[in-house]
Every structure is written in C-alpha cells, then in structure tokens.
Specification:
Elements lengths: L2 H6 L2 H13 L4 H28 L2 H19 L9 H22 L7 H32 L1 H9 L4 H25 L8 H8 L4 H30 L16
Helix pairs in contact: 2-3, 4-5, 4-6, 5-6, 5-10, 6-8, 6-10, 7-8, 8-10, 9-10
C-alpha cells in the first residue's frame, strides 16, 4: 500500500466527522485528535520496529516490552486512583502475565525467540491485559461502592476483609472476563480476527493463519483470567485499614 492509497482511506475518518457534525454529537475534535495521534504513533512505532527487527538485539526487545508495560500501566491506573498503590499493582500484573506467557511460548518452542514474534505477541498480551485491568477496576470499584453497607455488616459480625469483599471481587473478575469469553464463542462465524485477516491479506495459507489465530485466542484467554484474578487479589487489601475497616470515600 502506498502513501497515496493510504491517504484515500481518510474517507473512513471523514464519514464519522460528517455524522458527528450533522447530528451535533460534539465528537469532531476527539475524532481528529485520535486520527492524528494514531497516524503519528503507528508510523513512529513502525520505523522503530523495523530497526529492532533488523538488529535482533535482546536489549532493544526488552526496551520495547518495558515501554509497552509502562504505557499500559499509565493508562490503566486512571481507573483505579482510589485504590492505594494501584500503579505498582497494575505493573506487577502486566509483568507477571508477560513473563508467564512468554515463558510458555519460548520454553516449549511454540514460537521462535525472535524480535518479530516476541514484540508482536507481547503487544497483544499487554494490550489485552490493560483492557482487562480497566474493565476489572471499573466493575470492582462500582461493586464496592454499591455493596458498602453489606461489606460493613459482614465486618461488624466478625468477618475478615476477604470474606466481606469476596462477592464483589468475584463479580468483578467474572464481569471483566465475560467479553473475552463471549467474543471467542463467535470467532470465525461473526468475525475474522485481526491477526488471521492480516495474514490472509499478506498471502499466508488460511490454515496456517487459523493456527496462529488459535494460539492468540488461547493466549488471550489466559491473559484475561490471570490479569483479573491477580489484580483483584492485589487490590482488595488496600480498601481496608489496619483495623480491618472499609476505608471511607467514594471508590
């Protein structure tokens, strides 16, 4: 695809701009900012990845993965500001998920230990883990606030913080995992996944594309489960003080 061809695809940006303007949605500025940022960021990343892939230097690979984790942590932490230490909790979750998945992939030689595979798969894993963290934090803080009276009642009857918050924690974990599970139920019927479509467009054998896509599907299922559970159990103790009382304030 040439830059001229790419510029023609801006038609797909103009359409929502016109709809927003016509219906007075007020999304014109956000749409333009999102478009410009995506162009700059993706082109910059493209040139960086080209350099990293050609160099095959482990240091550059680690720097790219670290940058991904840092950016994901910064974005996800905004949804859990009321939880003390949420930044390091999210960072630990992302690092753990990344180490776990790459250890399995490389340890069992499922994929080659090259920058092309490590960085590409890491981006999908970290990005999915970030989204799951945001979904979890949104639901968890809402559950805690909604069931505050119930939690305090259990505590007053001698229950531990874990017992008092158990129902809200499980509900939040389940709610954050449901989108991943539901999307996988219709995979291939309702939609062709991005990785599979990209490989097919690039000329890869459809069966090979399916095999790689199944790898990613299974990988993201583990990412969803581990991210939600780990972040949940790291986060809930911060909602209570040393006297095992639920902290005041709106979560």
């Amino acid at each position: 695809m040439s830059y001229l061809t790419l510029s023609i695809t801006l038609i797909f940006v103009i359409i929502p701009l016109l709809l927003s303007k016509t219906l007075r949605l007020g999304l014109e500025k956000d749409t333009i900012v999102a478009t410009v940022r995506s162009i700059i960021q993706l082109l910059a990343v493209g040139y960086i990845l080209k350099f990293v892939f050609e160099s095959e230097n482990i240091l550059y690979i680690l720097l790219m993965v670290t940058l991904m984790i840092a950016a994901a942590t910064h974005n996800a932490r905004k949804k859990g500001k009321a939880i003390e230490g949420i930044t390091w909790k999210i960072a630990v979750t992302l690092v753990f998920v990344e180490v776990l998945t790459q250890s399995i992939l490389l340890g069992f030689q499922i994929v080659p230990p090259t920058a092309q595979y490590i960085i590409s798969i890491s981006g999908m894993v970290i990005g999915n883990s970030m989204v799951l963290s945001i979904l979890f934090l949104n639901r968890f803080t809402a559950e805690v606030e909604t069931h505050r009276d119930e939690t305090e009642l259990i505590l007053s009857l001698g229950g531990t913080p874990k017992q008092a918050i158990h129902r809200q924690l499980i509900n939040a974990i389940k709610a954050s995992m449901i989108p991943t599970i539901e999307s996988q139920k219709t995979m291939g019927l309702v939609q062709l996944p991005g990785m599979m479509s990209g490989q097919i467009i690039a000329g890869a054998d459809p069966i090979q594309a399916v095999q790689f896509q199944l790898l990613i599907i299974f990988l993201l299922l583990t990412t969803a489960a581990v991210s939600s559970v780990l972040l949940g159990f790291l986060s809930y103790p911060s909602l209570f003080n040393q006297r095992m009382q639920l902290l005041k304030g709106k979560f």
